[in-house]
Specification:
Largest sheet: 4 strands, mixed
Shape: globular
Order of helices and strands: EHEEEEHEEEE
Radius of gyration: 14 Å
Structural class: alpha/beta
Helix content: 10-25%
Strand content: 35-45%
Number of helices: 2
């Protein structure tokens, strides 16, 4: 599995896990939705299932379930600030198309 995490994303996740007061890391996955079919989901993880894949970078664990892995293998998770906007960016080499609003993608 090759999921990468930028230093900016790791710092942001670490900060929010500390504020939350618990958590083992974040789960990166996909869900079916939107115009193009799939959307990214990112959530805190308190328990890791035996079938989960785990990558640790910059002191942060990224957990991926086996069903999502096929769609996001090779993805880089970044955190960017542009003017007043900030958020996570997903650089996924498997994406073939993205809807106009940017909410969903297709592989």
């Amino acid at each position: 599995m090759s999921i990468t995490l930028t230093e900016a994303a790791a710092k942001h996740i670490t900060k929010y896990l500390a504020r939350r007061g618990k958590g083992l890391g974040v789960r990166l996955g996909v869900k079916t939705t939107g115009c193009s079919g799939l959307a990214y989901k990112l959530e805190y993880v308190d328990e890791i299932a035996p079938e989960d894949q785990v990558v640790e970078q910059h002191g942060v664990k990224v957990i991926v379930d086996p069903k999502s892995l096929a769609y996001i293998d090779g993805t880089e998770l970044d955190f960017v600030r542009e003017g007043l906007n900030e958020g996570f960016r997903f650089h996924n080499p498997n994406e073939r198309d993205r809807c106009g609003c940017g909410e969903s993608f297709r592989v």
